[in-house]
Every structure is written in structure tokens, then in C-alpha cells.
């Protein structure tokens, strides 16, 4: 079918997108790589020459590095655990027959559409404020002393905020996957006397495994680079300085571009490791 | 008897699901309610839920004090502009990959997707520098282009999956009936592609509207969209709950409404077709 002429036309139609994305990927990435081998302080002398791997050594050995790795892992891990576990439970619940299913689904999905700065600020001020926040009122109602969420339980607070934003995503995807499950299989198992827990463990969960993998991978990629939620709440203090935030501070706040770029390259490599796994699944699906 | 049992189960499901649904939705509901309170009511102890003097004052004050419409307009231009640009670039690309696939189509698609995985912070300074050099810092044009580029892989990918569902036989049939290429594209392909393009546009507007890394780092006063405007409430204005709520409600309302229309497309767009 495809003639030579249509092939070259197709190539021409693809060219703008390919060129744009190639430029968008290569130019800044090469610049970051270039800066990462330089001592470059735009506000204090500018380009001060090549320093080899000095920036990498200093980035990895700085006292802020390991805490930032741990903060990143805690946030990514905590949010993943909450969203996947509750996402599965919610998806199963939403799949059951009920009245007003459509409306409940809308209620559950809504947080995903709230912009990150709004959700972070609403949680920070109206829920987690130690004086006027709703949590403070709730704690006082039960006779407990209000918690200063964002300083005393800073990581928990950030995890709560981010998990609230991403729970809808996990739920929606897992719900879509559950709905594609053949209900006759479950009914047959039920008739054969399989208790609910085994039905879940042997039929539903295996069926969901790929959707769960996809949720974990996609969320990991997005969670590795959360920014606004920290920017408007703690600004990286109280142990919430993630890798992304640390690099941002090095680059834009202290304007140590060489050091920040070395961190940036590290972040790119980290994200790519996750991306490889995701691409494999997506690629497999493309063939099917 | 059996019917009775299912009804009972249905009732339990309903109560449970509605309870959890409302709990998850509560922060949004609370924000909307607070936006209609006076500042004193907003911090009343104990909190007031529904029975207060409803007022629109906060909305008026937010607009007057901070020129809210300007930020809204920036958001509209940036989200709409980047989506439009993205569609213009993506439609031909997705089209050719779906209808004239070659041996490398799959690799190209996956590579495009991989550019989406690039962490923004890794290229923050280069982009910042390029923006300064080209005078694009704090400009709507610059931000529109950046947001177009970061979402382009998703647009192409989504369009590709939609286009691939259009059966090629229909095109052949039209050609056999003597339709010219122009007629084929205009009367056969386009009507079938419109729903797919529309949902792609919808999802992309949502993503661009809520983008909060580049919008925060590349704008100051002039081109700041709503994400940056809300961030400026961080302190100390954030302690004025009613005004914060009014500003927030206005910022999320359009997207909440769009979002409700695009639930299904969300799955397709954000999992790159890996979950259907």
C-alpha cells in the first residue's frame, strides 16, 4: 500500500516533531553535561575553568546529599505504598454495584485536577496549620495537643499531600484494569467455594499486576521530580529537601551551576533507570 | 430473597463508597465553602460548615488587590497556546506513524516518550540561560513553547493510539469510490479523528494548566500564570483563608469541570496505552 512517495511524505510530516524533541532533549542535556565539568558561578566570577569530576565528587560527598536521597526515597516510597494499596481497595469498591457510582468516581478523581500549588497551600494552611487548621481543631476536640505538622511531622505531611494528589490516578487506572477482568472467572471461583480473600489473591491481583507495575513506574517518574509541593510548604527545611529540590537550590538559589549540573546529571540517570523498565512494558503493549 | 441480599450489599457499598468519596473530595469542598466565608468565620473555633453568612466579598477583593484576571489570562494563553502548537506539530507526525508505519515507527514512538521522562531539574539551568539570552524569561511565548515541548510526547502518543483505531479499509473504500485525497482527508478521516483530537486537547490543557515547575521557575510578575499566583499566597497572605480559598477555587474550577469530561482519556493519555 505505502508507496515510495507516501513514505517520503510521511517522513516529512514527522520531521517537525522529531527535530523539536531532539533539540529539546539534546541541547539542554549537553549544556548540563558541559557545565557539570566546570566551576561555574554566574554571580561570583562566571566560568572559572574545567575541574574534571570535582563537581561530582563534591555533590556526592556534601553533607546534604544522603539526606536528600533519603528524603526522596521516603516520599516516593511512602506515596507509592499509600496510593497503590488504597488505590486497589478503592478500585475494587468502585467496581461493586452501588447507587450514584458516576458521582462517587468524580469525587474520588477530583484531587488529580487540582494544581499542585493549590493543593499544597490548602493542606498547609487550612488543614495543617497548628492554630487554625482543621486538624488542630480535630486534635483539640479529642483533647490532644495540636501538632505542628510541617515542622514536627514534615515528611508525613508532604507524603499526605502528595498521596492525596496521586491516589486518584492510581485508583482510576486500577479501576480501568479491574473492569476488564472477566467477571465469569470470579463467579466460577465463587461457585467452587473460593473465599473472597483467595479470589482476590489468585484472580484479581494477578490480573492487576501489570496495571500496578505501570502505576508504580509512572508515579515514580513524576514523584522523583515533585517540586511545587515542597516549594510552597517547607522550602526544603525540616528534612524535606529532596534531590530535585537540592539541585534546584544549588542551581538557582546559590547559583553554583557546576555543582547543580553534576546533581542534574545524576537525576537524569536515576530517572532513566526507571524509564527503561516502563518503556519495556509500553513497547510490549505496542506489539500486541 | 437473593435480590434482597444484593440490595443490602448494594446499600453497604453505596454508603461506604460515598463516605470515602466525600472524604477524598473534602479538601476541595472545604476550600470552596471557605471562599464564601468572611475571614473571621473562616477561622472560627469550632469551624463552621454550612450555616454562615455567605458572601462574595473575597472574590471581589482578590480581583481588586492582585489583578487576578491577568494571571487567569496568562494561564489561558499558555495552556491553550501550548496545546494548539502541540496539536499542529503532533497531528501530522501521529498521522504518518499510524497510517504509513515503517520498521522504525515503534522505536521513534518510544524514544519520543523517553524525552518525557527527562527530569526537568536536570535541564533547569540550560533552559534558564537560554531564556535569559533570548530575552524570554518571564514571557508568555517562552513558557508556551516549553510547555508545548514537555507535553508533545503525550500528545503524539495519544493521537497515535486514536488514529490507529481508524480502520484503513474505510479509506480504501472511499478511494475505490473515487474520492480524491483531499476529499478522503476532509470527509472520511477528519470526522473520525475529531473525537480523538478533542480528548487529546482536553487532557493536554489540564496538564499544561497545572504544570508547576517551569511556570514557577521561568516567570516573575509579567507572565506568571495561576500556579505562580497561588504560590505567592505562600506567606503571609495564605493565613487569610477566605481569600486564599477564593483564589484557589477560581484557579481550579475550570480544570475540575474539564477534568470531569476527560476521565476516560486520562487513563489512555497517562499510561501511554499500557492500560486500556
UniProtKB/TrEMBL annotation, chain A:
<dbReference type="GO" id="GO:0005886">
    <property type="term" value="C:plasma membrane"/>
</dbReference>
<feature type="transmembrane region" description="Helical">
    <location>
        <begin position="211"/>
        <end position="238"/>
    </location>
</feature>
<feature type="transmembrane region" description="Helical">
    <location>
        <begin position="258"/>
        <end position="282"/>
    </location>
</feature>
<keyword id="KW-0472">Membrane</keyword>
<dbReference type="InterPro" id="IPR000515">
    <property type="entry name" value="MetI-like"/>
</dbReference>
<dbReference type="Pfam" id="PF00528">
    <property type="entry name" value="BPD_transp_1"/>
</dbReference>
<feature type="domain" description="ABC transmembrane type-1">
    <location>
        <begin position="69"/>
        <end position="278"/>
    </location>
</feature>
<feature type="transmembrane region" description="Helical">
    <location>
        <begin position="65"/>
        <end position="94"/>
    </location>
</feature>
<keyword id="KW-1003">Cell membrane</keyword>
<protein>
    <submittedName>
        <fullName>Sugar ABC transporter permease</fullName>
    </submittedName>
</protein>
<dbReference type="InterPro" id="IPR035906">
    <property type="entry name" value="MetI-like_sf"/>
</dbReference>
<keyword id="KW-0813">Transport</keyword>
<feature type="transmembrane region" description="Helical">
    <location>
        <begin position="12"/>
        <end position="37"/>
    </location>
</feature>
<feature type="transmembrane region" description="Helical">
    <location>
        <begin position="158"/>
        <end position="178"/>
    </location>
</feature>
<feature type="transmembrane region" description="Helical">
    <location>
        <begin position="106"/>
        <end position="123"/>
    </location>
</feature>
<dbReference type="InterPro" id="IPR051393">
    <property type="entry name" value="ABC_transporter_permease"/>
</dbReference>
<keyword id="KW-0812">Transmembrane</keyword>
<comment type="similarity">
    <text>Belongs to the binding-protein-dependent transport system permease family.</text>
</comment>
<dbReference type="GO" id="GO:0055085">
    <property type="term" value="P:transmembrane transport"/>
</dbReference>
<keyword id="KW-1133">Transmembrane helix</keyword>
TrEMBL record, chain B:
<feature type="transmembrane region" description="Helical">
    <location>
        <begin position="71"/>
        <end position="96"/>
    </location>
</feature>
<keyword id="KW-0812">Transmembrane</keyword>
<protein>
    <submittedName>
        <fullName>Mannitol ABC transporter permease</fullName>
    </submittedName>
</protein>
<feature type="transmembrane region" description="Helical">
    <location>
        <begin position="143"/>
        <end position="163"/>
    </location>
</feature>
<keyword id="KW-0813">Transport</keyword>
<comment type="similarity">
    <text>Belongs to the binding-protein-dependent transport system permease family.</text>
</comment>
<feature type="domain" description="ABC transmembrane type-1">
    <location>
        <begin position="72"/>
        <end position="262"/>
    </location>
</feature>
<feature type="transmembrane region" description="Helical">
    <location>
        <begin position="240"/>
        <end position="261"/>
    </location>
</feature>
<dbReference type="GO" id="GO:0055085">
    <property type="term" value="P:transmembrane transport"/>
</dbReference>
<feature type="transmembrane region" description="Helical">
    <location>
        <begin position="184"/>
        <end position="209"/>
    </location>
</feature>
<dbReference type="InterPro" id="IPR000515">
    <property type="entry name" value="MetI-like"/>
</dbReference>
<keyword id="KW-0472">Membrane</keyword>
<dbReference type="GO" id="GO:0005886">
    <property type="term" value="C:plasma membrane"/>
</dbReference>
<dbReference type="InterPro" id="IPR050901">
    <property type="entry name" value="BP-dep_ABC_trans_perm"/>
</dbReference>
<keyword id="KW-1003">Cell membrane</keyword>
<dbReference type="InterPro" id="IPR035906">
    <property type="entry name" value="MetI-like_sf"/>
</dbReference>
<feature type="transmembrane region" description="Helical">
    <location>
        <begin position="12"/>
        <end position="33"/>
    </location>
</feature>
<keyword id="KW-1133">Transmembrane helix</keyword>
<feature type="transmembrane region" description="Helical">
    <location>
        <begin position="108"/>
        <end position="131"/>
    </location>
</feature>
<dbReference type="Pfam" id="PF00528">
    <property type="entry name" value="BPD_transp_1"/>
</dbReference>
Amino acid at each position: 500500500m505505502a508507496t515510495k512517495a507516501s513514505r517520503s511524505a510521511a517522513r516529512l510530516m514527522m520531521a517537525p516533531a522529531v527535530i523539536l524533541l531532539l533539540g529539546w532533549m539534546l541541547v539542554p542535556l549537553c549544556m548540563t553535561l558541559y557545565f557539570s565539568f566546570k566551576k561555574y558561578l554566574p554571580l561570583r566570577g562566571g566560568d572559572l575553568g574545567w575541574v574534571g569530576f570535582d563537581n561530582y565528587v563534591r555533590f556526592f560527598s556534601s553533607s546534604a546529599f544522603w539526606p536528600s536521597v533519603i528524603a526522596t526515597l521516603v516520599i516516593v516510597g511512602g506515596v507509592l505504598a499509600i496510593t497503590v494499596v488504597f488505590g486497589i481497595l478503592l478500585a475494587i469498591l468502585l467496581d461493586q454495584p452501588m447507587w450514584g457510582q458516576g458521582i462517587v468516581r468524580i469525587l474520588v478523581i477530583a484531587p488529580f485536577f487540582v494544581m499542585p500549588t493549590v493543593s499544597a497551600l490548602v493542606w498547609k494552611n487550612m488543614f495543617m496549620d497548628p492554630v487554625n487548621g482543621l486538624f488542630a481543631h480535630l486534635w483539640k476536640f479529642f483533647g490532644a495537643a495540636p501538632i505542628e505538622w510541617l515542622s514536627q511531622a514534615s515528611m508525613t505531611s508532604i507524603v499526605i499531600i502528595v498521596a492525596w494528589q496521586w491516589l486518584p490516578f492510581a485508583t482510576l487506572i486500577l479501576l480501568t484494569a479491574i473492569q476488564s477482568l472477566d467477571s465469569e472467572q470470579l463467579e466460577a471461583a465463587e461457585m467452587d467455594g473460593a473465599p473472597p480473600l483467595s479470589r482476590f489473591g489468585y484472580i484479581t491481583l494477578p490480573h492487576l499486576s501489570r496495571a500496578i507495575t505501570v502505576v508504580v513506574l509512572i508515579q515514580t517518574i513524576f514523584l522523583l521530580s515533585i517540586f511545587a509541593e515542597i516549594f510552597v510548604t517547607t522550602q526544603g527545611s525540616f528534612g524535606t529537601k529532596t534531590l530535585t529540590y537540592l539541585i534546584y537550590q544549588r542551581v538557582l538559589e546559590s547559583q553554583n551551576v557546576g555543582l547543580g549540573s553534576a546533581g542534574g546529571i545524576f537525576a537524569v540517570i536515576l530517572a532513566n533507570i526507571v524509564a527503561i523498565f516502563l518503556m519495556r512494558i509500553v513497547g510490549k503493549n505496542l506489539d500486541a | 430473597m437473593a435480590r434482597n441480599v444484593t440490595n443490602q450489599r448494594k446499600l453497604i457499598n453505596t454508603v461506604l463508597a460515598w463516605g470515602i468519596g466525600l472524604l477524598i473530595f473534602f479538601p476541595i469542598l472545604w476550600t470552596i465553602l471557605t471562599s464564601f466565608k468572611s475571614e473571621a468565620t473562616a477561622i472560627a473555633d469550632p469551624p463552621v460548615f454550612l450555616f454562615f453568612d455567605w458572601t462574595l466579598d473575597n472574590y471581589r477583593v482578590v480581583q481588586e488587590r492582585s489583578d487576578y484576571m491577568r494571571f487567569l489570562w496568562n494561564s489561558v494563553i499558555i495552556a491553550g497556546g501550548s496545546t494548539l502548537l502541540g496539536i499542529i506539530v503532533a497531528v501530522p507526525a501521529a498521522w504518518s506513524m499510524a497510517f504509513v508505519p515503517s520498521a522504525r515507527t515503534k522505536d521513534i514512538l518510544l524514544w519520543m516518550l523517553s524525552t518525557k521522562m527527562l527530569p526537568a531539574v536536570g535541564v533547569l539551568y540550560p533552559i534558564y540561560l537560554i531564556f535569559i539570552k533570548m530575552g524570554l524569561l518571564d514571557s508568555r511565548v517562552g513558557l508556551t513553547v516549553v510547555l508545548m515541548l514537555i507535553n508533545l510526547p503525550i500528545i503524539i502518543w495519544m493521537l497515535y493510539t486514536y488514529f490507529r483505531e481508524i480502520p484503513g479499509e474505510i479509506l480504501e473504500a472511499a478511494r475505490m469510490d473515487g474520492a480524491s485525497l483531499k476529499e478522503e482527508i476532509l470527509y472520511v478521516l477528519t470526522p473520525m479523528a475529531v473525537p480523538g483530537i478533542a480528548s487529546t486537547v482536553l487532557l493536554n490543557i489540564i496538564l499544561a494548566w497545572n504544570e508547576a515547575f517551569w511556570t514557577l521557575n521561568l516567570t516573575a510578575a509579567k507572565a506568571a500564570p495561576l500556579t505562580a499566583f497561588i504560590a505567592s499566597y505562600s506567606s503571609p497572605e495564605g493565613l487569610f483563608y477566605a481569600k486564599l480559598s477564593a483564589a484557589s477555587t477560581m484557579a481550579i474550577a475550570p480544570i475540575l469541570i474539564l477534568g470531569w469530561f476527560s476521565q476516560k482519556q486520562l487513563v489512555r493519555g497517562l499510561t501511554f496505552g499500557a492500560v486500556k
